[in-house]
Every structure is written in C-alpha cells, then in structure tokens.
Amino acid sequence: AESFLDKFIADARKDANERAKVKSIWNPKAFQQQTGLYTTSELQEFLPDILVSRRQFETLLAKYDSGSVDKSQPAVYEVMREQNRVEPIKEVRRQCFRAKLWLQKQAKRSGDRRDEKREASTDSTYETTYERIKRTLDDEDAQLLLVSRLQGKIQPAAVTQVRRSIEEIIDAIDQFVELLPQDERTVAMAIADSRQDTPLMLENLKDWQSKKAAMAP
Asked: What is the spatial distance between Cα 175 and Cα 163, in angstroms, rounded to a whole number?
C-alpha cells in the first residue's frame, strides 16, 4: 500500500511541475520564452553548470547549519524551496540529463556497441545514477514543502531530515560526476570556479517575505 510519505512526495512532484510554470519573483529569466532546445556534443557547455549547482547546495547546507538561520521557522523552508526555482539549481536536472546523453554517446563511440551486454550494463549505470539525482531533487523539494506547511515551531527531527535530503543531492551529483572523464572534470571545475555564486535567499529572508507579500493578490 502507498504510504503517506509516498503520496505526499508524489503530490509534491506534481505541485513542483505546476510551480515551475509560474514566474518567480527571484528569477527574471522565468519571464523569458523557453525553447527547450539544447545540444549534448560539447560537455563543457553544461558540466560547469552541474558543478556550480553542487556548490550552491553545499553553500546552502553551510548556511543552514550556521547559527544565523532560525530553523524552527516554516518560512526558512519555504524560501529554501524557492531557491530550487532559481538558477543554477533550477537547471541542474536538465544539465545532468545532457551529461547522461553525452556519456551514452561516448560509450557507443568507444566500441561498447560491439558487446551488447556491456553496452546495456553501461547504459544502466548512467541511467541509474541520473535517476538517483532526479529522485533526491524531488525528495528534497517534497521535504521542504512538507516542513514549510507545518504549524508552529519546526521540530529537530524535521530539521535533521531536511539536512539529510540536501546531503543526498550532493552525494548523488558527486556519484554522477565521477562517471565523467577526469580531464573533462578538471576543465569544468576551473570554469565553475571562475563563476560567482547566486546569492542565497536565506541571506535576505525578510526581503523575500516582503516581496512575496507585495505580490499576493
């Protein structure tokens, strides 16, 4: 039988899909027309974005662990969830999908196609690792939604669960990136290190609350 948490996560994923269509007050690019067209031939077009997204989650986790965040307040989790809808995190799922396609193309070019079992095993590894990223992103978003809707102060167990969900995302990305060639990772890391991080909304929680209130109908 489907558990309450499974149903909640399924509902949250549906809600996330609907919210992705809504323009965010923190994301000006949401007002641009989406074409959905992209290529997978050049890994450095999207691997740096994945590494920047990972760094953003790491920065978010460090901020979450700091004493400056009142983790007992539901608004903290609401704004963390809003961060998921801003670049670079907003694009990490799509960029990982492109990287997965790149890996699959490289495997075929290297001659894995001559061994059907080996090719199937390789594709399965890429698919499984990518699916883990998708799952951890969905679970973290669902967890944030659940906690943000709680009444009163957030209990320590929920605080810990949110932390674990972010750690799972970071670990899943690390596992996926390990599948990519070392030389490509080195170049991508240098590119990622040259980019500035997107400011965390948690740094300006009151400002976010004010803007949200101003946009309320």
From this structure: 19
Please give the structure tokens belonging to residue 175: 């596992």
pTM for the model: 0.78
Which alpha helices (DSSP H) does 20-115 contain, by range? 47-65, 74-83, 92-109
Written as one string, the DSSP assignment of 84-107 is: TTSTTGGGHHHHHHHHHHHHHHHH
State the Cα–Cα distance between residues 187 and 182, nearest whole angstrom. 9
At residue 185, what is the residue type?
Answer: R
**Cβ–Cβ under 8 Å, residues 92 and 137:** yes
User: How many whole angstroms separate alpha carbon 175 and alpha carbon 94?
Assistant: 17
User: Mind listing the pLDDT tens digit for each residue in 34-88?
Assistant: 434 557 789 999 999 999 999 999 999 999 999 899 999 999 999 999 999 999 9
Which amino acid is residue 38, in one-letter code? Y
